[in-house]
Fold UDP-glucose 6-dehydrogenase.
Amino acid sequence: MRITVVGLGYVGLANAVLLARKHEVVSLDIDASRVDMVNQRVSPLVDQELIQHFSEAELNLTATTDAAVALDNPEFVIIATPTNYDPDTQYFDTSSVEAVLQQVQDLAPNAVAVIKSTIPIGFTQRMQETHPDLQIVFSPEFLREGKALYDNLHPSRVIASGSEEPATRFAEMMADAAEDTDVPTVITGTDEAEAIKLFSNTYLAMRVAYFNELDTFAVEKGLDSGAVIRGVSLDPRIGDHYNNPSFGYGGYCLPKDTRQLRANYEGVPQNLIDAIVDSNQTRMDFIVNDVLRQNPSVVGIHRLAMKAGSDNFRSSSISVVLEGLRDRGTEVVIYEPTVEQSPIEGVALENDLNTFLERSELIITNRVGDELEGVRDKIYSRDVYGRD
């Protein structure tokens, strides 16, 4: 089967590699450097399984910047382009998805267009009305940073929506490409599938916010945060997972998805969704103030990525904390070996670890790694479990 994947970010690349193990896959991206890396069998993203598959697996995968080449008679076109949250409209910017759908209409009208990008509730139905002759499926993605391919090889579920026949066919293809058997599959309406994606991520954000607020209380009251969390989490209804305090939920998905769901609630009574969004900002403000109470002369930021094994620091909460410290007049230096220049205006970058450690009076890190063992007396972290 010939499949086109548009977009070589985490979602697109993971889907392309997954499916290229059994099918012919052509990836389309506007970034020529990413295209070249894929064609040279080098992963453009830091992800253990992706790196391993590029170096060891037999993949029927090519990449191009030419839409006409990529859209030459595919059976499926998987759309995985960015949908950033626009704070002015309070909705995702879906222009990239809409542009690809028009390309599919023009160049591959017989293909099934599968939207993997996160979108507002009601978007797929509007696109189906705009392109009545296209078969459009929405299939939400549930990936962790640094585990994008792993979570496709071992999916928690496959959800597809739209007309039943193409949605079922696509879901069966994704389940067949996984390494697990008996993958739970849900075929549903497009509005319902869009809601599943946003409510899933908002629940995860709520859980992060809950344990972060527990930790804030423990700090202010002088309690052992870890002891409280462990005692609470022993209740099997709560569980000992996704409960490690952090500086706030960040990354590409949770901040924008919670805001999008809040926007979709317009006209519907709610309190909790507002509270989840507001809680995250409150937590990051608290971290800034808690650090400043120690009156450090130079604060070091050890890594901008929030997840171990990932190089993605888009919208990371530690970046917000960093900017808060900078704006309060604190000298800040970043250690981030994956970049060559500071991504934060007015903040120095130091890529030599030893120089960074010596220069920093206080070192902020979301998760305490082995390379910080020798400077534990300098570390500020809310990490209880030593894991994500």
Observations:
- The mean pLDDT is 94.
- The longest strand covers residues 2-6.
- The first helix runs from residue 10 to 20.
